[in-house]
Specification:
Length: 608
């Protein structure tokens, strides 16, 4: 799915700002908030999660629908165009109404969708745009949750993932046009390298008149044409191509044009394209044929007040911090991040593990930590066939959105599912196929393994290309006892290496809650000293296991969690930075290690 863009043939109107806002207190259909002006005087910022913007607990804790509304004018010169409202994210379900009419609905809170407006409003006319957003999580949504209706009729939301269920329009809303006669509907670019030649295999899908000619041009960073081709499918060769490298991005513009018989451009759309290869070979992860060691983070889109709202100041600042500390990569834990973040990672040369929102598919963790009644994860009551269909859809939508990003080197189809529980294999086998079929570039795939599903218990690891492990030895296991933790951690890693001698292993989470400023002579848990000792211990083990191809610590920054998580004080504190991005003492320690790793692995972006 192409991100809307302005070009010589397309216009783009940004609809961000403050929108009228109201809770839907009862039934959406009964209240029909879209049939008139919204009640009350609240206004909510877009993009932002609404939960922490207002101080009313009824809004913070609301379970169900809310409505956003504003007036929009279709530009008067859009007379030979089709036009759409693009909602970049409505968490978790969104409906778009143009005046009184429902024009689009979408389930899945972190991927975009479109509503076509063309036949409903004429160029130059104004319309009332209402977007209703629902934040309920059930056993058939991804992520899943359980919804309870209490005796007083109030809904109560339970969910089993460890981050706050921020809701609303957290990413931009756009109105955009494409030429009506014929337009570029989708573009797929698959980069390859042969010697010093860069190859872009491409496929351009056309909407409207399909007999129109497709012409593609590749421009370098100086806007010089370095390759051309004709036809909707084909390849472009670039002599002496500059590669996209970790820490040293280089992006070509792949421009797809539709031309009429006289050669006039009818539509034009450009995709930033990095030329690089990705391959898993034995226990190595190769980027451009060279072994790559991941350093970096599991992260969250999370800041005070705006929740999961995309914010370019935080985005740039976070990338600055990652650069400073020597992080060459991150995982979009635990959902697809804003498209702007993916584009920025492309430009900054940051390597990304791109994850679906399939988190919380684990009632083993839930019953342990949240005292939920015991229930089987893979069962008609929780993750069933409908859940799997929603999960499959979340994989397809993620790949459709992000397939062209050079930064994406690995797809993660789920975080910490109950992969040691009966039924896991039956649930995941079809999803592995969905993921492999979805990506035309055939990137490797992984899922993120939970600490209970050790090498002798996990039922699904053999189906994936990289063994991604979240381990908390010294924190959740052998709490505070780093000597016992080290022995147990090393023994487990050796077990994985023995069982899967041909697969790379990657630490996708390891961490310890640390209260910034809490100092201790005896390095007790929660202190800054403990966090340092904990990471030192983990790194000693990483350095002993050759099959480990990377380490992403949990978490980049402290982040908000559900109020049900009584063991969290104002959120999860495993950040290397605080929620407002101040470094904890560990930051300098990690920087030292990662700068050295990056210099040693000697790719062009490493600091020398
Ligand atoms: C892991 C989860 C992550 C949590 C983390 C923790 O993948 O979402 O926040 O543990 O407990 O189980 O801090």
């Amino acid at each position: 799915m192409l991100k809307p863009q302005a070009s010589s043939t397309r216009d783009l109107v940004n609809l961000d700002g403050t929108w009228r806002f109201a809770l839907v207190k009862d039934d959406l259909e009964k209240e029909a908030p879209w049939t008139g002006a919204l009640p009350g005087s609240l206004e909510a910022p877009v993009p932002a999660s609404y939960n922490d913007v207002f101080i009313d607990p009824a809004i913070h804790n609301h379970v169900g629908w809310v409505s956003y509304q504003r007036r929009v004018i279709v530009p008067r010169n859009w007379t030979s165009d089709r036009y759409f409202v693009r909602v970049s994210a409505a968490t978790h379900e969104g409906r778009v109404y143009v005046n009184d009419k429902l024009v689009a609905e979408h389930i899945g809170g972190y991927t975009p969708f479109d509503a076509e407006v063309t036949s409903l409003v004429k160029p130059g006319q104004e319309f009332r745009l209402t977007i209703t957003v629902n934040n309920e999580l059930t056993n058939t949504t991804i992520p899943p949750g359980l919804l309870e209706v209490q005796a007083d009729g109030q809904k109560k939301q339970k969910y089993f993932h460890d981050f706050y269920n921020y809701s609303g329009l957290a990413r931009s809303v756009w109105l955009y046009s494409v030429p009506a006669a014929s337009s570029v509907e989708d573009v797929t670019v698959i980069p390859d390298v042969q010697g010093s030649t860069g190859i872009i295999n491409y496929d351009v899908q056309v909407a409207g008149d399909k007999s129109a000619d497709v012409h593609v041009t590749v421009l370098d960073e100086d806007d010089k044409v370095v390759g051309e081709a004709k036809g909707a499918k084909g390849e472009v060769k670039i002599d002496n191509a500059k590669l996209w490298q970790p820490g040293a991005a280089y992006l070509y513009q792949f421009r797809a044009e539709i031309r009429d018989s006289a050669g006039a451009v009818q539509d034009s759309y450009s995709v930033a394209t990095g030329i690089r290869t990705v391959e898993v070979k034995g226990t190595q992860f190769l980027i451009n044929g060279k072994p790559f060691y991941f350093t970096g983070f599991g992260r969250h889109e999370d800041t005070a007040v705006r929740g999961k709202g995309h914010d370019s100041a935080y985005m740039v600042h976070d990338f600055q911090l990652m650069d400073w500390i020597g992080a060459n990569s991150f995982r979009t834990s635990h959902y697809p991040y804003a498209e702007e973040v993916m584009e920025f990672a492309d430009r900054q040369g940051i390597v990304v593990i791109d994850e679906t929102p399939a988190v919380g598919l684990n009632l083993g963790i839930a019953s342990g930590f949240f005292s939920t009644k015991k229930m089987a994860t893979w069962s008609p009551e929780y993750c069933n066939e409908q859940t799997r269909e929603a999960h499959a859809n979340s994989i397809r939508e993620l790949v459709a959105r992000d397939k062209n990003h050079a930064c994406v080197v690995l797809w993660s189809i789920s975080n910490e599912p109950s992969s040691n529980e009966d039924g896991a294999r039956e649930y995941f086998a079809p999803l592995v196929k969905v993921a492999r079929d979805a990506d035309p570039a055939k990137r490797p795939i992984c899922f993120i393994n939970v600490m209970f599903a050790k090498f002798d218990l996990c039922l699904i690891s053999d189906m994936f290309d990289v063994l991604c492990l979240n381990r908390y030895y010294g924190w959740y296991e052998h709490t505070g006892d780093l000597v016992a933790a080290e022995a147990a951690f090393e023994a487990e890693m050796l077990g994985w290496a023995k069982k899967y001698p041909d697969k790379p292993m990657m630490m996708t989470e390891y961490g310890a809650d640390t209260l910034s400023g809490l100092r201790s002579w005896n390095a007790g848990p929660w202190s800054e000293e403990f966090q340092i000792a904990y990471y030192d211990m983990c790194h000693r083990v990483h350095d002993k296991i050759p099959a480990i191809i990377g380490e992403q610590v949990w978490n980049f920054a402290d982040f908000q969690t559900s109020a049900n998580h009584i063991f969290r004080v104002d959120g999860n504190k495993k950040g290397i930075f605080t929620r407002d991005r101040k470094p904890k003492a560990i930051a300098a320690v990690l920087k030292k290690r990662w700068d050295k790793i990056n210099v040693d692995q000697d790719y062009p972006g490493s600091k020398k």
